[in-house]
Amino acid sequence: MAAKAVETRLEPPEGTESAPGKKSSSIQVVEFILGKEHFAIDLFDVKEVVEYTTITHLPNVPAYHKGIIDLRGEITTIVDLKLRLNIPESSDVAAESSRIIVLDSKITRSKIGILVDDVSSVSTFEGNQVDYTSASVSREDTAIIGIIKRKLKVKDKETNELIIWIDVKQLLGDISVG
Q: Which tens digits make up the pLDDT trace of 62-101?
């Protein structure tokens, strides 16, 4: 069974800098949910987002290798990001409501998708909304680039929502597929 593409257009918002090699003060990310936490990866590391489909499990692979899917005639390896990041499984999320973020094959050198609980949005943040020092708390082998702080107003009180910005290339760098 082939995966159905979700109507999610992953193009940068108009008026933002998207040329490779050009520095801008803003970042563009795809936001998603894993358990109760919000995460983000670079927009330009993403090819598309597809709905959950039946995953064929492979024998003798690490637990975070969920298996493979047929995505429009191409075999795509699926990595369970919750297992890869050691995030506890939450019982209130049904697999069928999950999404697969298909990564750009230029960064992964093969067809890889990451399984997430839900994709919430494509967002642009200013550089001053990212705290890079929080990422250095853990060891240098971490895949956390920084913590994005989004201001929210809840009941006339302003609060920060924290989004963990991860480097998917570093996180999946040791994964060998086919």
A: 999 999 999 999 999 999 999 999 888 776 666 777 999 9
The three-point CA angle 89-149-96 to 5° equals: 30
Residue pair 88/22 in contact by the 8 Å Cβ criterion: no
Going by C-alpha positions, the residue among 92, 42, 75, 31 that lies closest to residue 178 is 75
For the entire predicted model, the pTM comes to 0.79
Decide if 34 contacts 158 (C-beta within 8 A).
no
Cα distance between residue 100 and residue 153, in whole Å = 30
Domains and CATH numbers, the chain: 26-171 (2.40.50.180)
Distances (CA, A) of 16 to 12, 107, 123, 146, 159: 7, 22, 11, 21, 26
